Every structure is written in structure tokens, then in C-alpha cells.
Amino acid sequence: MKNIYYYAEKNGLSLFDTGDCQLCGSQAKRGIFECHENFCLLSEKLDFSDPVNHLSRFLCVDAMALQHPEVHGPGSNHLHLTRLYLILVDNNLWTYKKTPQLSDTFNAIKAAGYDPLIPPAVKNRGELTSYDVASVNEPREIIHHIRSWAETVFHAYQAHHPAVAKIAAEFLRTHY
After folding, report:
1. Average pLDDT in the 44-70 region?
2. Whole-angstrom distance, CA of residue 147 vs CA of residue 48
3. Is residue 1 scored above 70 in pLDDT?
């Protein structure tokens, strides 16, 4: 299985385990590794099977992936940003069933040719990070912070909104 080390090496990136996160700029003490720990901690703090918290899981995954794209597969950037578009702009109530459908839609578009999604500059991928969200303990506040985190990440990628709007429209046309 490919992991963050594989993609970091492929992207010529050395991962640091001290100081601020070199990708999102969070005030972590153990770099990107603390970002990932914070991300996992959110799963422990919230019951994502609860319908009230359900959407937060997707927002959290997408925000995390888009702030750290150098340690994920490059094709996933389109999927994460399009899903954020569908949730935040189209108010789509996302379910697990929809993710493979969105992936199929993007794969069809990709086969016809597409422009790669170039992330914003390092540390300019959203004003909030997993560090900010993990510092909150009250469930309702966590949900609010996760949404705010996802919104700031989505805004940071605004140059790509027209491209993902087309993917979203095709997804909705073919699946709903």
C-alpha cells in the first residue's frame, strides 16, 4: 500500500517530525505527523455514524487531503475538491455511496483529457488546520470548526472552482 512516505519521496519531499507542518503551516510541534495524528484524533472525538456528524467526516478528509496533497495520490485532489464543491456550494448531502460514483465521473473526464490540479503554495491552503480543530473538545464546536476548516481550504483553491464545477455538474447529470 502506498503511504505518505511513498508520495513524499515521489514529490522530492523530505518529511520533518519537528516544528510547524511544512505543508499546511499548522503550529504543530511534530510537523506533518502531528497533523495526521490530529486528523485521527477527530475520529475519536466525534461519532461519525451519528447523522449530525456524518457530513463532517467528508469535510475533514477533504480538508486534510487538500492541505497535504504532496503525500496523497495526485488524482485525488480533483475528487476532494469536487466533493467539497458539491457539499459546500451545492449543499449535497454526501453519502459513502456517492464517492465511487464521483470517482467514476472523474475517471471518465480524465480519460478525455484534463488539466492537473496544481495546489496553492505550501502554507497557503486554508487559514485553519487540523491543529486548530483538534484543540476543540465540545462536539458541536468540533463540527463547526471542521466546516470552517473545509471552507477555508476550499476558498484557498478558488482558482480551480470552475474546473470542479464542471466535474460536479457531470456527476449530478449522470448519477442524479
Report:
1. 89
2. 14
3. no
**Inter-axis angle of helices 139-156 and 31-45, nearest 10:** 130
What does each C-alpha distance from 83 to 25, 29, 73, 131 come to in angstroms? 23, 30, 16, 22
Q: How many domains does the chain have?
A: 1
Per-residue cell: 20: 510547524
Length of the chain, in residues: 176
Q: In whole angstroms, what is the distance from residue 63 CA to residue 55 CA?
A: 13
Please check whether residue 96 is in contact with residue 124, taking contact to mean a CB–CB distance below 8 angstroms.
no
Three-state secondary structure call for residue 117: coil
Domain that holds residue 168: 4-175
Cell of 18: 519537528
Percent of the chain topping pLDDT 70:
99
Average pLDDT along the chain: 93
The DSSP secondary-structure symbol of 19 reads B
